[in-house]
Amino acid sequence: MQENIYENPLDFGISGEDQPEQIEITEKTASLWLKTSNWFTFFGGLLFFMVLVMVLSIRAAASSLDGLGIGGGIALGILIILTIIPAVFFWSAGSKIRLGFMRSETEIVERGFRNVVWGYRYTGILVIIFLVILLA
């Protein structure tokens, strides 16, 4: 019977006695993850900047003659809240991955990766919801 490679893709083809206890993190791997953590922090910061622009646009629209209206204000408020959540996940992921590799603490790195997963999961669900709303 053939083993399902999708359940354990990292140890596929390694016999029981040759299988390592853990995945070995080399210097090159750590270096690449540190560079990747900078991108997570950048995307988190970019999302925070977008929130700032939205808040400034609300203030500018509220001070104009027509105003934003209650519906527009509520819509922008919801958009701000929806944008802050992935920004926190990605910013936190970048910071935790970098800190974990600098301190050589696996638990901190794992928390950072969990934040990456939650950030992408949240963003993916949000995209699906927006597509359903747009196509309906």
Strand content: under 5%
Write down the secondary-structure element order.
Answer: HHH
Distance between the termini: 46 Å
- The average pLDDT is 80
Number of strands: 0
Helical run tally = 3
Q: Describe the main β-sheet briefly.
A: none
Low-confidence stretches: none
Q: Tell me, what's the shape?
A: elongated
Report the helical percentage.
Answer: over 70%
Rg, rounded, reads 21 Å
If you had to describe this structure to a student in words, what would you say it looks like?
The protein is an all-alpha fold and 136 residues long. The chain is built from 3 helices and no strands. The longest helix is centred in the N-terminal third of the chain and has 37 residues, at 27-63. 15% of the residues are buried.
Main attributes of the structure:
single chain; 136 residues; mainly alpha
Question: What are the SSEs and their pairings?
Answer:
Blueprint: H1 27-63, H2 69-103, H3 106-135
